[in-house]
Amino acid sequence: MHKGRRVSVVFPAFNEEENVYEAVKDFLLNSVDEVIVVDNSSADRTAELALKAGAQVYKEEQRGYGYACRRALKESSGDIIILSEPDGTFSGRDIEKLLAYIDDFEMVLGTRTTRELIHEGSNMGPFLRWGNWFLAKLIELLYNGPSLSDVGCTMRAIRRDALQRIQGEFTVGKSHFSPEMIIIALKHRIRTIEIPVNYRPRKGISKITGEKRGAFKVGLNMLYLIFTRLW
Hints:
By secondary structure, the protein is of the alpha/beta class.
């Protein structure tokens, strides 16, 4: 609970048995009322371990990061919804940073590009860091946004009333869902700010940016999305 408002944490999850139990426990802080894990057709014990840790678990049969995120947001019941990852890259302590700004802004985005908060061993080398920065600056310029430096950071908070204004416009089901959410929010003039969050080494292999070729493909999809959403 945050100042009388319920707080939901939502995780999209695909084969995350290595860390999902620890992630749910880490994010079940005093200010968090529920943790929701959307199991995106995992072939391991992701759902079982999430339930054991105290999360509510839902199944999403449409395979894709965006589909899992959209389902997770839909299933949440909080007045404030925090989207994150169960792979160990984000810290539950950073929830308090997001909540500190949510009273003044309708959406608070995390950024993983602050060098001082990029932990050793994390998947944020120069290629990913500058690629995210470049695409974020494009969105900032083309959509009259606030200062942005990371287009793909999952960690973010949004108020329920703001989410309801944009939720019906989500179309992306794959790995470029994050920038779509930002673009739609800016087009609806949702008051947004970006703040630095910790970015740690993940448990397991990234399904999206684990290899440079995959990261480059995601970047091209994001670039295409940024320009096609202008109209």
